[in-house]
Design a protein that fits this description.
Blueprint: E1 5-7, H1 16-31, E2 39-42, H2 44-53, H3 60-75, E3 88-94, E4 104-108, H4 114-122, H5 125-143, H6 148-162, H7 172-190, H8 198-212, H9 216-225, E5 233-239, E6 250-257, E7 264-272, H10 276-281, E8 287-288, H11 290-295, H12 297-314, E9 318-325, E10 328-336, H13 341-353, H14 359-364, H15 368-374, E11 378-379, E12 389-390, E13 392-395, E14 398-404, H16 407-415, E15 420-424, H17 432-437, E16 440-443, H18 451-459, E17 462-465, E18 471-473, E19 478-480, E20 486-488, E21 492-496, E22 501-504, E23 509-510, H19 513-520, H20 528-543, E24 547-551, H21 555-563, E25 569-573, H22 583-591, H23 595-619, E26 624-628, H24 641-653, H25 660-672, H26 684-689, H27 693-710, E27 716-721, H28 727-748, E28 756-760, H29 763-767, H30 769-772, E29 778-781, H31 783-791, H32 798-808, H33 822-839, E30 844-847, H34 855-863, E31 868-871, H35 876-886
The structure holds phosphoenolpyruvate and magnesium ion (MG).
Protein name: Pyruvate, phosphate dikinase
EC number: 2.7.9.1
Family: Belongs to the PEP-utilizing enzyme family.
Length: 888
């Protein structure tokens, strides 16, 4: 029988898909015997049914009623019981944490009668009315869709009328009046009354949580975090406990280790006499958790014990939300906590050392994206100047941008290409688009677990929060520091999320320690994170099957790539050697009307090319260097046609005769003009129709090999032919390559043999890979062109033109130029691997498109059986790590 509701005693964390992360972990804590207020969970399955049909599935409400009855029974109180009501929290919880993105309704069960009962049983009239006020407000905005600003205005005008700065100064009478105002507001706005039936409140709150799965901010968050759209959220219904019953109560958030640096020890924030939402919203400034030891030593000790239990059980950093109700500690939530990249590496290393996880598990817990983040620079402490303000270091890294004060402005300026820092008193989930658009987030209120901090850390954005000394005036669009310095919207500031500092202007940056280590291999006196990164890379190198090479065209890049651990060059794009001063020689070669003139131009290019190859082969001595013959259309090396035409035409308009060289060039460029140059005379096609070009390039390679060999080196050049679509093209070109290699061998007396292979970057090449392998000694997938030609997407245009719309509409979750499209391009890769190796067993196969450095794609290439990935030098460590993780 299908069932939709589960008691906390019935599940565990293995059911996260069904019960949502929050529900499953509450069940797990219940199972561990931790103090969790009792409750039940409406499953994600019920939500999915609701989202499909628009109605709660049959049987769900009956089940909810049964589980509620059991909860009432165990609590000894009923929902809506006038003299002593059972009150409930109704919270969302998807499989993957989406902090603050969906809805919550607290204090469900209060009505005009039971609020009196709550006042009596709690002995605190103000508390009872404040709870009722919160319910009407939350229910009004979340369930009945009344603009939340209207409630805030009503609250603000009441405070102004009473002449008090803060809602804590409103008394029970004031709050009762506010409840009345709120109820009227709801009626005015919706034509409906706030429901006095607690059962109806519960039913509608559950539906509102379901609906919030498709709320705008939830959808945006999912897209960004690549969370599937069709999971749905579970709904956790739980007995309320109160942290706002007086000084012996409070709420907090705690981590088993520091989520910013990974340092061992208890971290967190505590707010006395407050509800959990107050801590996260950053409405009042919290105190560090250590302070709780002073305030309530018993609860602190218990909390510490529970945290240890959780960390040992989950074998990972956990974070928890807890509430102390009149001296009794309750655990309200736990999960394996989000952390910065630095903390991820440090914690994985610590847990391996502590023997809690294996080295393989440690490797699984770090990521290439995290490593890439650690390779970013930070501010030079000597060059930052005076601190403008200090706050909490909530999410590390360094960012410079223009100050903006709201989400819309952040989005607007970022779209225009400006770097911005979003400055808010505190952020709410509505600020999400602005946070996505900004380089950094700065808030004047809230702790390290405030919304701003949690969300920024998850996104890898720089964040400083709780910078109390700032007065943020959003309407005047400026903030003021303690010493009276005023910073207006648009002014530049620098935000250091690692130190929690804000500086005026654009501060200078220094490279990261991790980068220093990667470049130098030096980890003496290194920070813990550097040692952790070094350990993870070593582990990855030990387990990975794929090699990692680099795409490099200069000796400097080759040397850097080698320091980063590259095991050769997978792609040396020779066209990059045709630029700058050499452009004139290339021009000469293209314009040559006679064989003799062309031969002269090629002869002039030859020694230059040879010198390039000598440098690269020396930098990669002993390792394979795949040199690709010229690929782009030749007119790319000539001046722009329009510019030339304008030059010639304006000379003529002035009655002068145009420069004859310009005329000759214009003629050549017009002659060579192609409507679709990417699909035109390029790649192997050039080699087949431009006489002497291949011979010159191959001679330069072969002579470089000779020279390096004579110098005592061990050059391992490989020659790669681009854009092949038919085996015949490769056969013809290869014959020419072999001819020149034999010639140079003979001339020099040193046998030069270079493997000759091809790029697979056209669908036809992939589809006929078996034939092509007859002529190719290796394959290298050019997934940039293969993506371009498989999708029919111009790689130079489409990303800016319409990919954001495609991402919005969910056509794909990531640009196929960044992350390999497994379904389409990936199938061509698999087919070419299978047919290529069937024709030539042991065929060496790699990839040299941008995807070679993309973590998700690396995992695909591993699974597809590739021998190596090749990527830009800076991505080499990332690819090493991910190739290792893929092999786990
Ligand atoms: C490719 O197409 O993937 C490739 C590596 O070649 P290029 O980017 O130079 O076209
Ligand atoms: Mg290409």
């Amino acid at each position: 029988m299908v069932r939709y509701v589960y008691d906390f005693h019935e599940g565990g964390r293995e059911l996260a898909g069904l019960l949502g992360g929050k529900g499953a972990n509450l069940a797990e804590m219940t199972r561990l015997g931790l103090p969790v207020p009792p409750g039940f969970i409406v499953s994600t399955e019920a939500c999915r049914a609701f989202l499909t049909t628009g109605a709660a599935p049959d049987g769900m409400s009956g089940e909810v009623a049964r589980y509620l009855a059991a909860l009432e029974e165990s609590a000894g109180r009923r929902l809506g019981q006038p003299d002593d009501p059972l009150l409930l929290s109704v919270r969302s919880g998807a499989r993957f944490s989406m902090p603050g993105m969906m809805e919550t309704v607290l204090d469900v069960g209060l009505d005009d009668d039971s609020v009196q009962g709550l006042a009596k049983t709690s002995g605190n009239e103000r508390f009872a009315w404040d709870s009722y006020r919160r319910l009407v407000q939350m229910f009004g905005s979340t369930v009945m869709h009344v603009d939340s600003a209207l409630f805030e205005q009503a609250m603000a005008s009441l405070k102004a009328g009473r002449g008090v700065p803060d809602d804590v100064h409103l008394d029970a009478g004031d709050l009762a009046q506010l409840v009345d105002t709120y109820k009227k507001l709801i009626h005015e706005q919706t034509g409906e009354h706030f429901p006095q039936s607690p059962a109806e409140q519960l039913r509608r709150a559950i539906v509102a949580v379901f609906e919030s799965w498709n709320g705008e901010r939830a959808r945006l968050y999912r897209r960004r975090e690549h969370i599937p759209e069709d999971l749905g959220t579970a709904v956790t219904v739980q007995r309320m406990v109160y942290g706002n019953l007086g000084p012996d109560s409070g709420s907090g958030v705690a981590f088993t280790r520091d989520p910013a640096t990974g340092r061992a020890g208890l971290y967190g924030d505590y707010l006395s006499n407050a509800q959990g939402e107050d801590v996260v919203a950053g409405i009042r400034n919290t105190v560090p958790l250590a302070e709780l030891e002073r305030l309530d030593a018993r609860s602190y000790r218990l909390l510490r014990t529970h945290l240890r239990t959780l960390e040992q059980h989950y074998r990972d950093l956990c974070d928890v939300e807890f509430t102390i109700e009149r001296g009794t500690l309750w655990m309200l939530q736990t999960r394996v906590g989000k952390r910065t990249a630095e903390a991820a590496f440090a914690i994985a290393a610590q847990l391996v050392t502590e023997g809690l996880i294996t080295a393989e598990e440690g490797l699984a817990r770090v990521s290439g994206d995290g490593l890439a983040r650690l390779m970013f620079p930070r501010f030079d402490p000597r060059a930052t100047g005076e601190v403008l303000a200090r706050g909490l270091p909530a999410s590390p890294g360094a960012a410079v941008g223009a100050v903006v004060f709201d989400s819309a402005e952040a989005v607007r300026r970022a779209a225009a290409g400006e770097q911005v820092v979003l400055v808010r008193q505190e952020t709410t989930p509505d600020d999400l688009p602005g946070m996505v658009a900004a380089q950094a987030v700065l808030t004047s209120r809230g702790g390290k677990t405030s919304h701003a901090a949690v969300v920024a850390r998850g996104m890898g954005k720089v964040c400083v929060c709780g910078a109390e000394e700032l007065t943020v005036d959003t309407s005047a669009r400026r903030f003021t520091t303690r010493d009276g310095t005023v910073v207006q919207e648009g002014e530049l500031i620098s935000v250091d999320g690692s130190a929690g500092a804000v500086y005026p202007g654009a501060a200078a940056l220094i490279p990261s320690e991790v980068m220093h280590y990667l470049e130098s291999g030096d980890q003496s006196e290194a920070a813990a994170v550097v040692r952790a990164v070094a350990g993870a890379l070593q582990q990855a190198d030990g387990v990975r099957r794929m090699e990692v090479r680099a795409n490099a065209d200069t000796p400097e890049d080759a040397a850097r790539a080698r320091r980063f651990g590259a095991q050769g060059i997978g792609l040396c794009r020779t066209e990059h050697m045709f630029l700058g001063e050499r452009r004139k020689l290339v021009e000469e070669m293209i314009l040559a009307g006679s064989d003799a003139r062309r031969a002269r131009a090629l002869d002039a290019l030859l020694p230059l090319q040879r010198q390039d190859f000598i440098g690269i082969l020396a930098a990669m001595d002993g390792l394979p260097v795949t040199i690709r013959l010229l690929d782009p259309p030749l007119h790319e090396f000539l001046p722009d046609r329009t510019e030339l035409a304008v030059r010639v035409a304006s000379a003529e308009a002035r009655g002068e005769s145009a420069d004859p060289h310009d005329v000759e060039l214009l003629d050549a460029v017009s002659h060579m003009h192609e409507e679709n140059p990417m699909l035109g005379l390029r790649g192997v096609r050039l080699g087949l129709v431009v006489p002497g070009l291949v011979a010159m390039q191959v001679r330069a390679i072969a002579e470089a090999v000779v020279e390096r060999t004579r110098a005592g080196g061990f050059p391992r050049a490989e020659i790669m032919v681009p854009l092949v679509g038919a085996v015949e093209e490769l056969r013809i070109e290869r014959a020419e390559v072999e001819r020149v290699l034999a010639q140079v061998s003979e001339e020099s007396g040193i046998p030069v043999s270079c493997p000759v292979g091809t790029m697979i970057e056209l669908p036809r090449a992939a589809l006929t890979a078996g034939r092509i392998a007859e002529q190719a000694e290796f394959f290298s997938f050019g997934t940039n062109d293969l993506t371009q030609t498989t999708w029919g997407f111009s790689r130079d245009d489409v990303e800016a033109a319409f990919f954001s719309a495609y991402l919005d509409k969910g056509v794909f979750a990531a640009s196929p130029f960044e992350t390999l499209d497994r379904e389409g391009v990936g199938r061509l890769v698999e087919l070419a691997v299978a047919e290529g190796r069937a024709a030539r067993p042991g065929l060496k196969i790699g990839v040299c498109g941008e995807h070679g450095g993309d973590p998700q794609s690396v995992h695909f290439f591993h699974a597809a059986g590739l021998d190596y990935v090749s990527c830009s030098p800076f991505r080499v460590p990332v690819a090493r790590l991910e190739a290792g993780r893929a092999a786990l």
